[in-house]
Amino acid sequence: MVRLTCCFGQWLARRVESRSATRVSPGRSKDFDDDPDCGAALSKLPVDYKLAAASLPEITQALHSAAWVIPLPAELRPIYDHEQLALRRGHNRRVLIIMTIIFDLFWLAQFKSAPAILLPSLMLRAGMTVLLAAFVMLDGRNRLGRAYGTALVTIAVMATVISAVLTVMTPATTTTNMSDIRSIPLILMATGLIARLTPAEVYSNTGISVAVFVGSLLIAPSIPHGELASLILMDVAIGAGAVVLNLRLETRDRRVFLLQASDRINRAELVARNRGLLMETQTDGLTGVANRRCFDEMLTESWAAAKEQNDPVGLIMMDIDHFKLFNDHYGHSGGDDCLRMVASAARRETRNSDLFARYGGEEFIVILPGARLETVFTIAERMRLAVESMGLRHAGIGQNGIVTASFGAASMVPSPENSSMTLFEAADSNLYVAKHGGRNRVAAGDWSAADDVGSFAHRSDCPRG
Questions:
Q1: Torsion, CA 13, CA 18, CA 22, CA 25, rounded to 10
Q2: Which residues are catalytic?
Q3: What would the pLDDT profile of 59-116 be if each residue is shown by its tens digit?
Q4: Could you tell me the residue range of the domain that residue 336 belongs to?
Q5: Number of separate domains in the chain
């Protein structure tokens, strides 16, 4: 019966929300950030969820809704339900425990008012206490799962059912102060106004409680007929008040949730834009590799890290041979295509920890953290072969000419006698040697005795080579 009523409550909640979704006033505006209730709840609401699928226009439309229950975008509904359940569970357990203790204390009043039902009353109240203990234990261990709503409504309604049963069992001849029947509105008030229930749970709890209360009044022999109308009106009024209050609290919670979701989306977009702007400032717009600014920053960082760990830093300077002639022959568009193709081919030969950057014009440069000269020379030679193997025609230097590049390689361990500028000058000097030694070659000085000591990863926002 309770399960059936819960299903009806869920259906009713969906109907109310679907009708609310159509009652939107686009022209209505309100500064929700000024709402003190929203602000207080907003500061306590946890937010560790993904909002990539959320629609900001839908959130804005929902926040401007004039409906009793703010409709939630479908993408956010599961997130909201999960968070609210986590927030409400502990509170509802405490409310049910306090409510059950107070409800059990009503048994003491039956010593004088209804001694005939003293034993059945004790047994029923003890049974409810045992069920509550089981509910608290299972909920505390997160074992109820999807049955949480049904179990919660069952516990909340049980006190009403027990009071109604005891009222019916009370003999007509018993002089009673009707403590059991008068406790039902108090139970409904506690569960409806203090406990935090979903709209479906509120509808189910209120509907069952009011129906049980009215039914027990009509068949209980101990209820004076003159008090029937007032008791029924009181319970119905409390039930209606509980529904209205819970719906307003639900609306407030949804508004707070949507405000925070909107804030998260806006901040995520701002971070993404800032990250994009940062990448633009550190990326060469033509080739897509790191630019001169990024190279300067990374060389300083790599040199400082190597100095702390007494590791070497390698550097490769690369210059496309006869690029001016290529540019003159094929035009600036052809020159741009050449730069892109050469950069793409050369950077594929570098390691993940290396930084491949465009230094300017047709010059490129590579930082190789942790690489001794032999490793630097080997990578530079692979880059040279990669450019040469493209076979890109260079008619500006002859009929069978192809694009090639020259390389200057160097490696140093930071010490008081040198600096990153010393490393740069060494690589630049070796590039000069390669250029004047016939081009399409790597110059690295004396490297035969060098040995590779591996490499280390270095974090950077710069594009990697």
A1: 40
A2: 362
A3: 888 888 878 788 888 888 888 888 888 888 888 898 888 888 888 887 887 777 778 8
A4: 292-443
A5: 2
